[in-house]
Amino acid sequence: MTLHGTIVIGLPVYNEEAALPKLLVRLDGLRERFGDSLHLCFVDDGSTDRTAALLAEYIGSAPNARRLAHPANRGLGAAMRTMLEHVSTHYGDKDILVTLDADNTHSPELIPDMVRKLRDERLDLVVASRFAPGGEERGVPWLRKAYSRGAKAFFKLLFPIAGVTDYSSGFRAYSVGALRRAFREYGGIVVTSTGFACMAELIARLGKIGVNAGEVPLRLEYGLKEGRSKMNALRTIAGYIRLLRVVKHPSPASEPEFPAFDGAKR
User: Fold this and answer.
1) d(CA 7, CA 112)
2) DSSP strand E in the chain: where?
3) How far is CA 249 from the centre of its chain?
4) Which residues contact 111 (CB under 8 A, 6 or more apart)?
């Protein structure tokens, strides 16, 4: 694949020692496609198992990979804030951030298609969607399916974005330029949620600033998930409702200067 810029794969991780060995092998397979253009950014949100040791061993031999760490668990929202701030500061507008879950339910092999779509169609955001034509869910409990479909209806009604049907999927490719624009327009704050609602908050804010978005079909293999789900359904639903109050159109009068891209990709 011919590239202009860097692909940063961002993974928030918390106690993922069971899933990481398999995931890291799959990520290494992407180096044949992207070469030195592939960077990895792990945000370790206070893991208490062997996650830190596994990442240290991997990063010691992997080019362009780094671990950002929280001393204690602060939640997915805090991990995403750390990642987004790091990428938006250290990478340029033409680079791409791809986020995905670290529990093996998201296939890294889909990333080249997401990157190609974003670049070929000049989009700001590409979502790997269970609801796009060709997408499906395998092994997902019925209650979790009900939550995801309820979230789809909620956000399609209240935070509509042309080209998006799956608002809760965390498997996404972002133009770093669009993320930097969101930071500028929202006064340096694009995620305030602490839990899983942070992913919906981010996409809702991007929708308010008018991003161009599209989807690729996602085959969610829930049966491959390693470990128990960390999502609290009731807290996530409460977090979605909270977004009605906190996600507004940005106020141009309150736009501070976001830290400039320093030219060093780390």
Assistant:
1) 10
2) 7-13, 38-45, 65-70, 96-99, 125-129, 136-138, 172-175, 213-217, 219-221
3) 22
4) 7, 9, 30, 98, 100, 173
Q: Tens digit of pLDDT for each residue in 136-182?
A: 877 666 666 767 777 788 888 888 899 999 988 899 999 999 999 99
- Identify which of 106, 144, 130 has the alpha carbon closest to the alpha carbon of residue 229: 144
φ/ψ region of 226 (left if φ > 0, alpha if ψ in -120 to 50, else beta) reads beta
Count CA within 13 A, CB hemisphere, residue 106.
25
User: For residue range 56-72, what is the model confidence (pLDDT) as tens digits?
Assistant: 999 999 989 999 999 99
Looking at the predicted structure, is the pLDDT value of residue 224 above 60? Answer: no
In the chain, the domains with their CATH numbers are: 7-247 (3.90.550.10)
